[in-house]
Amino acid sequence: MTRADTRKIKLIGLDLDGTLLNGKKQITDRSKEAMKKAIEKGVFIVPATGRPLNGVPREVLEFPGIKYVLTVNGARITDIKQNKILYEVLTPMETVWKIKEIFDRYDTMQEVYFDGVGYAREDLLRKITEYESRPGMAEYITATRVRVKSIEEKLREMNRPVDKVQAFFKREEEKQKAWEELKMIPHLEVTTAGKRNIEVSREGVNKGAGLLKLGEMLGIKRDEIMACGDEINDLVMLREIGFAVAMGNSPDIVKAAADYITETNEEDGVAKAIERFVLK
């Protein structure tokens, strides 16, 4: 018997890439049907992603019954039906400059997110495959980022706290060096969702904290929250919520944090978990 067998799940947090979305960045028909039935039972389905709001697929945002979206790894919770920000924890500009100083030492394609929009240098986006080798992810980034000539100029133009800072590294060994340097800066949350990227937010920002905050707003207890994820930036989420599901395509460290391991994102893993623990 698993922990989910002894409780009523009222909220499900779903990571997108590698979890709800398959390799073609689509939701399978079986997952759609499982989500639909869960929503009909009164369960909140909440996309929980590292993406900015403008990077969340339309089929997710327009899925019937989805009302809340947790983006940029938990830095923001949005009521998409009322177009209202319910919660946000942003990174101060003075900290952003320290992060950028480290990223600038290496061969990186950097991004900054403001108000649910991701910005990246147009010249580097044309060479995206040098920094992101996964075809589906490279295509998503190219299609959703706003192109700018200079990240530094964009930061000076906006001159206010950011949603998140991200960098894609050409070399994995340089990512590891930058990771160690970033860990020396206080009050940061440093995570990753791939072999060559680093995502940086303000301390305390993670999907788990975001789901717990939304649960608090909705009167839902920790034990009534289930989440599915596949990557390192899902680790804290899986450890903090009531019932944790890791995808079959997850690395071992993520699987070790889970209460249950479902099938991969290519094998309807999310649908099978919802069917077993919510629709039974």
From TrEMBL:
PROSITE patterns: COF_1 (PS01228). InterPro entries: Cof, HAD-like_sf, HAD-SF_hydro_IIB, HAD_sf. It holds the Pfam family Hydrolase_3. Gene3D superfamilies: 3.30.1240.10, HAD superfamily/HAD-like. One of its GO terms (cellular component) is cytosol. It comes from the Bacteria. GO terms for molecular function: magnesium ion binding; phosphatase activity. NCBIfam families: Cof-subfamily, HAD-SF-IIB. This is Haloacid dehalogenase-like hydrolase. The lineage of its organism: Bacteria, Bacillati, Bacillota, Clostridia, Lachnospirales.
